[in-house]
Each structure stands twice: as C-alpha cells, then as structure tokens.
Amino acid sequence: MTFPKLTKLELQIMEALWTKGPCSVREIQEFFPARKRPAYTTVQTTVYRMEVKKALRRFKKIGTALIFEAAISREQAERRLIDELLSLFGGRSRPIMAHLVESGTLTLEDIREAEKALLEAPKQEDEK
User: Fold this and answer.
1) Is residue 95 part of a domain?
2) Is the residue at 1 inside a domain?
3) What are residue 54's phi and psi, to 5 degrees?
4) 128: pLDDT strictly greater than 60
C-alpha cells in the first residue's frame, strides 16, 4: 500500500491528530503555536484535501462539527519521508549517514540500535 505524500502543513495537522487523537478542525488549528497559527479556513481546506488523499478520515459528527482521525500512522508517514529522501540520493544511504555523523545528530546508541535491527533482519526473512 502506498501512502500519500504530505506537505509540511499536512504533517503538522497529522501531528495534532497523532498527539491528541480525533479532533475537530478548530482543535487542530488551536494545536499550532499562537504566533504561527494558520487561519481556520486554511486548516479546514487542508483537512478536506487530506481526507481526499486518505491521510485522515471523518471519525464522527458532533452537532455541526466534524471530528477527524488519522488514517495513517506516524511510522507510515516517517517511512514515506525517508523513502523520498533516499530516492533523492539514488537509494544510497551513505551520504545521509555521513551527514548525521558529521552534524552530531547520530549517536552511538542510534548506531547500536541500527546494528541490532540489521542483525535481526535476516531472522525475520527466514521465518517467512
């Protein structure tokens, strides 16, 4: 299954839903910091577009307010972003890893977790 490509604003809307759970458009808008808060109509239009993309769905209706919930998980969205980033580098992860090391973003603990995942990966394939 392919997951929709999300813009920065759409990812921020998804963050509200992942953090708070099902929300109305007003609750999503109020999740943004006050000084960077987009207009209500901007959030509303974006939410409706995201519904068409199947990134979120209508959960229920309370009075006239529609309540929306995330239709994709944070992990699914993160994987899509990482796949897009890797495609920019022709599928090569080495330039990304080198940058993370040089910038100090990648910790020794991150490397240990990645090594553990690599060692476990063949076991998962053998069990299938």
Assistant:
1) yes
2) no
3) 70, 30
4) no
